[in-house]
Amino acid sequence: MANEFVKAKTKEVRKSTIQKAVIIALAYVGVIALVSSGVLGYQYSSVLISVAVNIIAAVSLNLVTGFLGELSLGHAGFMAIGAYTGALITLHLNLPAPVEIFLGLAGAGIMAAIFGLIIGIPVLRLHGDYLAIVTLAFGQIIASILNYVKSITGGAAGLNNIEEYTTSDHYLLVLTLVVLSVLIMSNIINSRYGRAITAVRDNYIAAEATGICIRNYKIFAFVVGAFFAGIAGFIFAHNVGVIKPSKFDFNMSINILVFVVLGGMGSIKGSIIAAVVLTVLPEALRGLSDYRMLMYAVILIVVMLFNNSKLRKRLVEESGLKKLFTKKKGEA
Amino acid sequence: MALLEVKNLGISFGGLRAVDDFNIRIEEGQLYGLIGPNGAGKTTIFNLLTGVYKPTDGSILLDGKNIVGKSIHKISHEGIARTFQNIRLFGKMTVLENVKVGLHSQYKYSLFAGIFQYPAIKKEAQMTERAMEILEVFGLAEDAELLASNLPYGQQRKLEIARALATNPKLLLLDEPAAGMNPNETKELMDTIRLVREKFHVTVLLIEHDMKLVSGICEELTVLNFGTVLTQGKPEDVLNDPKVITAYLGE
Ligand SMILES: Nc1ncnc2c1ncn2[C@@H]1O[C@H](COP(=O)(O)OP(=O)(O)OP(=O)(O)O)[C@@H](O)[C@H]1O
Ligand SMILES: [Mg+2]
User: Fold this and answer.
1) Is the confidence at residue A299, as pLDDT, over 90?
2) pLDDT average, residue stretch A46-55
3) Which residue of B has its CA nearest to A211?
4) In this structure, is residue B102 part of a structural domain?
5) Closest chain B residue to A212, measured at CA
6) B147 interface with A at CB cutoff 8 Å
7) Angle CA B203–B207–B211, to nearest 5
8) Which of A115, B58, B129, B133 has its CA 20 to 30 A from that of A98?
9) Is the residue at B193 inside a domain?
């Protein structure tokens, strides 16, 4: 019995690996087709990069908020650190583009991770609302520091003329970064490390008694989440070309949180879908001009209501879409 | 040498002396019972043994090594596992995953192995196999893919024991494992506990309210009252002790 089960389970893992490979291949084919055929036009090509930034940001926040279960309201702070570190590296170096990009990405991720470590320490003492306030303050502090150290960051005016390494012209690079980031995070979640993180979320007292060092895993989740937020920040900076502290405000953190909540806490797939839809939606609603944000908000409310409704449950059960909608094991 | 030797253990919460001058000696392989009326300090003793509370006095020797002051997860690594009076499972994880958390410290692979999936997949398959073996002992193998929180109450209690055993403990602490079960389920559970002791070579210390039930399974008992040891010994002697009868029935 145990043996058969293990075999079936291994098969399942193999199947999901193949599935992932297919989805990735489709993503490449789809994006290449969309861009090269020109259907996207200028407006939507640039949205493509925002989608990428938001996917990485949402999945990395989900690591902390969905899987570790700690509400973080300062994710934009980590993105800011990644954006500034990455931009300063590529601005000051004078090396071939691939080298600059590599060093910039590494610097962005590592610097953000170091801040993740720092913010991870109060996490050990605080929970829930208190921690949310601390992360909120963290986001504000980062913005103030960036404003203050003018000599390095350019103050409120920010940094200009950042090399445009990750614009829609370089969509294959950006897509690859998204694929790698998501793959690494999802593999971590499905490993013993992710299992330990979710155990801490579900019951930290039991997790500790079961031999899990909750301190290490809490900090670990924050560090990995921050690292990839830094990567997202790098892409953001090298797409827009200009960064200012005011860009990485509370609003940005909340927007990312909306992706995570709407896509479902602890669902990587959900975060990706929510990030795509909610990034494209405001563009699609552009025609409504003044009513755009209103419509966006109304759609958010309707989706949230639908997600929690009996109607959805019934639809999912009846249409045999259960598989599609139930979270993948390990992600659950 | 005894597996567990506790000497002069004590703890105060503010003015309340919850446990005072507590001594116990448990030999390897024993099935030992800790009983006493409500609020006697039984759970507090489990919390002291597992590092949740730091004692104000005394020492706890596991295999001759003092574990007082060690952190909770380190004590788990030293070989003490427990269940909780009010069940604490990882509710949003599957039954299988719950047990695999228990295996966490024995089946290790690096973060990079996890990211690249190799050889993590092999280790995970070994973990699954071991977890399924443990679940089979508790008749939970069929429910491996269910969410832990969707199990019926009695099964949840069993899963907690399964998870504790997965940490490969020397000493297993069970806090009222039969609470809320009907007489049939209780009897079945007691048989399982006996079986587990043989199969996993583990020493068991269990808390129970029901003296009759405890006398059927335990080889030695300690009766606790108001945080102090009332009496210790063989079940038949202990349960006929007038002091014990008074403590349970009142003056
Ligand atoms: N953290 C704490 N702070 C203050 N008092 C505590 C604490 N933990 C336990 N106590 C007190 O210590 C005493 C013993 O409690 P304990 O839970 O150990 O009893 P018990 O024997 O397990 O009882 P029960 O059979 O009801 O489970 C009680 O008076 C309880 O209120
Ligand atoms: Mg108790």
Assistant:
1) no
2) 93
3) B73
4) no
5) B73
6) yes
7) 115
8) A115
9) no
B150 within domain boundaries? no
pLDDT of residue A329 exceeding 70: no
Pocket test for ligand 1, best of B9, B11, B12, B16 (most atoms within 8 A of CB): B16
Given a cut of 70, whether residue A321 has pLDDT beyond it is no
The CATH number of residue B240's host domain is 3.40.50.300
Residue A286 token pair: 């552009």
Residue B24 sits at φ, ψ, to 5 deg, of -155, 150
Q: Which atom of ligand 1 is nearest to the CA of B224?
A: 21
Q: At what angle do helices A268-284 and A250-263 cross, to 10 degrees?
A: 120
Cβ-defined contact of B108 to A6 (cutoff 8 Å): no
pLDDT at position A316, please? 65
- B85 C-beta closer than 6 A to ligand 1: yes
Burial class (CB in 10 A: 0-12, 13-18, 19+), A128: exposed
Q: Which of B242, B236, B241, B199 is nearest to B218 (CA)?
A: B236
As for how many domains chain B has, the answer is 1
B50 close to A (CB below 8 A): yes
Residue B86 beta carbon below 6 angstroms from any ligand 1 atom: no
- Reported as a pLDDT band with limits 50, 70 and 90, residue B250 is low
Ligand 1 probe mutation, B34, B42, B85, B176, most atoms within 8 A of CB:
B42
Q: Are strands B65-66 and B80-82 parallel, antiparallel or unpaired?
A: unpaired
Query: What pTM was estimated for this model as a whole?
Result: 0.91
Query: Domain range for residue B32?
Result: 1-78+215-251
Count interface pairs A-B at CB distance under 8 A.
130
CA atoms of A174 and A179, how far apart (whole Å): 9
Domain residues of chain A, as ranges?
1-39, 50-255
Per-residue pLDDT of A57-86, as tens digits, reads 999 999 999 999 999 999 999 999 999 999
Examine the pLDDT at B68 and tell me if it is beyond 90. Answer: yes
The rounded Cα A188 to chain-centroid distance in angstroms is 14
Tell me the shortest Cα–Cα distance from A250 to chain B, in angstroms: 30
**How far, in Å, CA of A241 to CA of A243, rounded?**
7
Q: Residue B120's closest chain A neighbor by CA?
A: A191
Neighbours of B221 (CB within 10 A): 23
Q: How far is the CA of B165 from the centre of ligand 1 (A)?
A: 25
Nearest to B73 among A6, A190, A211 (CB): A211
- Whether B137 maps to a domain, the answer reads no
The ligand whose atoms approach the alpha carbon of B47 most closely is: 1
For all residues of chain A together, what is the average pLDDT? 88
pLDDT tens track for B114-149: 999 888 989 999 999 999 999 999 999 999 999 999
pLDDT, average across residues A294-303: 79
How much is the ipTM here? 0.93
Q: At what angle do helices B120-137 and B95-103 cross, to 10 degrees?
A: 110
For A208-221, how does the pLDDT look when each residue is reduced to its tens digit (9 = 90+)? 999 999 999 999 99
Residues of A in contact with B121 (CB under 8 A): 10, 13
* CB of B175 shorter than 6 A to ligand 1: no
